[in-house]
Amino acid sequence: MSTQRAAGLTSHQSLVTSHHAGLASILALALALAASPGLRTAHAQDSSHALRASEAVKPQVFVSIEPVPQGRKFEIAVVAQVADGYHVQANKVLEDYLIPLTVTADLPAGFKLLNTVYPKAQLTKFPFAAKPMAVYEGKFQVRLSVEADASVPAGAVKIPMTLRFQACNDQLCLPPAKLPIAAEFTVAPAGAPAKTIHPEIFATKP
User: Fold this and answer.
1) Are residues 110 and 95 in the same domain?
2) Do 70 and 95 share a structural domain?
3) Of the candidates 76, 63, 70, which has an alpha carbon nearest to the alpha carbon of residue 145?
4) Which residues constitute the domain of residue 31?
């Protein structure tokens, strides 16, 4: 083998060795960073933000009778499930800076809102607050009493509604959220028979 060719092979081997050494150094650095407590903490914080504000509460809407005769009173229940590990501020908050949970209805002409009943709040002490807070956890419901006027046209009706809330866990609060929901039912002529539905919901107070 010529001296020039041998020198070329030696140079090539040196480049390969240096390349492998560089990869090994990068891999070692990556493993060291992954094992560091600071990185695990940052990852944990990122995972706590994985839940979107709009996903913290899952609402369902129910109507107490079907159909709703003209001139008849009825109820609408918004049954909501709060995500595990989270709570929402109650309708009657204890501090002015907190955002209360509300359910509002955009009633069509001929419908009248008689009353809105929110559940009793749970007083809970959290590490980030000096005083207990009024919150809802788990499953809860908000009940609306509505009256259909005799002038309401018979047929399918959809009442747009909005569920507004702010959800928090023991460490952070998600941004306030507004969820569009709706009550859907049929209006029947005055005096038409109405069947009570969802007794498991409307048989008890919220």
Assistant:
1) yes
2) yes
3) 76
4) 3-48
pTM of the model: 0.74
Q: For the chain, what is the domain count?
A: 2
* pLDDT tens digits, 96-112: 889 999 999 999 999 99
8 Å CB contact between 113 and 144: yes
Q: Which domain CATH number covers 178? A: 2.60.40.1250
Q: Which residue has the higher pLDDT, 67 or 124?
A: 67
pLDDT at 64 over 60: yes
C-alpha 75/C-alpha 174 separation (Å) is 31
DSSP single-letter state for residue 137 = -
- 32 with 104, same domain: the answer is no
For residues 183 and 66, the answer to whether their CB atoms sit within 8 Å is no
Element housing 202 (H / E): helix 199-202
